[in-house]
């Protein structure tokens, strides 16, 4: 069973539909016992970092997510769901994240148009199974105004937005974060989700 965490953040139906297209039947839930039974977890999200963290606290989900992380269960964070995997965010106010990935999430204080919205190429920083079905320079779809700064050893792929190197995929052990939206990234996004399926089935 794959669980999509329901914490009142973002459009869960589009993520569910995309997972179904690659043969993953996912359950949308905030039930802690179901989450503990998951073979993989998806943490979606659209909105503000502090709201997301406050909702996880409100629904008492931080403890069970830590349990699953420590048990080695794969966790995929998408967009805001990726950002809250990091140690700290600075949207609206300084807020502690889950700390599953190292680094911080800061406003994209750059010369380009913000939010960063549209299709950008993925550049590979290192080889990882999540990339196995796609090619260097494939395009994926972004919508965000904040970006993660992470250690190079956790940076799997990035995109160039003007002169800025945007963290696109970050990985640490069983934790995977995608700043872009695989579910909105057409055939490339589907191939990334297919690779995620292959990772959790092996």
Automatic annotation (TrEMBL):
Active-site residues (renumbered): 79 (nucleophile), 181, 183
Domain of life: Bacteria
Domain Glutamine amidotransferase: residue ranges: 3-188
Alphabetical UniProt keywords: Amino-acid biosynthesis, Cytoplasm, Glutamine amidotransferase, Histidine biosynthesis, Hydrolase, Lyase
Alphabetical list of PROSITE patterns matching this protein: GATASE_TYPE_1
Localization per record: Cytoplasm
GO cellular component: cytoplasm
One Pfam entry name: GATase
EC number: 4.3.2.10, 3.5.1.2
Pathway participation: Amino-acid biosynthesis; L-histidine biosynthesis; L-histidine from 5-phospho-alpha-D-ribose 1-diphosphate: step 5/9
One BP term from GO: L-histidine biosynthetic process
GO molecular function, one term: lyase activity
Annotated SUPFAM superfamilies: Class I glutamine amidotransferase-like
Catalytic activity of the protein: L-glutamine + H2O = L-glutamate + NH4(+); 5-[(5-phospho-1-deoxy-D-ribulos-1-ylimino)methylamino]-1-(5-phospho-beta-D-ribosyl)imidazole-4-carboxamide + L-glutamine = D-erythro-1-(imidazol-4-yl)glycerol 3-phosphate + 5-amino-1-(5-phospho-beta-D-ribosyl)imidazole-4-carboxamide + L-glutamate + H(+)
Cross-referenced HAMAP family: HisH
Function: IGPS catalyzes the conversion of PRFAR and glutamine to IGP, AICAR and glutamate. The HisH subunit catalyzes the hydrolysis of glutamine to glutamate and ammonia as part of the synthesis of IGP and AICAR. The resulting ammonia molecule is channeled to the active site of HisF.
Assembly, per entry: Heterodimer of HisH and HisF.
NCBIfam families assigned to the protein according to its UniProt record, in alphabetical order: IMP_synth_hisH (TIGR01855)
Protein's recorded name: Imidazole glycerol phosphate synthase subunit HisH
Source organism (scientific name): Thomasclavelia cocleata
Organism taxonomic ancestry: Bacteria, Bacillati, Bacillota, Erysipelotrichia, Erysipelotrichales
Gene: hisH
């Amino acid at each position: 069973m794959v669980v999509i965490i329901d914490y009142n953040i973002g459009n869960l139906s589009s993520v569910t539909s995309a997972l179904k297209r690659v043969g993953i039947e996912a359950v949308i839930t905030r039930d802690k016992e179901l989450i503990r039974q998951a073979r993989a977890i998806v943490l979606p999200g659209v909105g503000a970092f502090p709201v997301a963290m406050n909702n996880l606290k409100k629904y008492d989900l931080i403890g069970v997510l830590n349990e699953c992380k420590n048990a080695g269960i794969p966790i995929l964070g998408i967009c805001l769901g990726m950002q809250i995997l990091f140690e700290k965010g600075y949207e609206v106010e300084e807020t502690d994240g889950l700390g599953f990935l190292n680094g911080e999430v800061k406003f994209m204080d750059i010369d380009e148009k913000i939010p960063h919205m549209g299709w950008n190429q993925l550049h590979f920083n290192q080889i990882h199974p999540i990339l196995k079905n796609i090619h260097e320079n494939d395009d994926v779809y972004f919508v965000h105004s904040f970006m993660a700064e992470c250690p190079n050893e956790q940076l799997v792929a990035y995109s160039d937005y003007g002169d800025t190197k945007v963290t696109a995929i970050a990985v640490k052990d069983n934790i995977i974060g995608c700043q872009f939206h695989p579910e909105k990234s057409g055939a490339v996004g589907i191939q990334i989700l297919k690779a995620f399926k292959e990772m959790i089935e092996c």
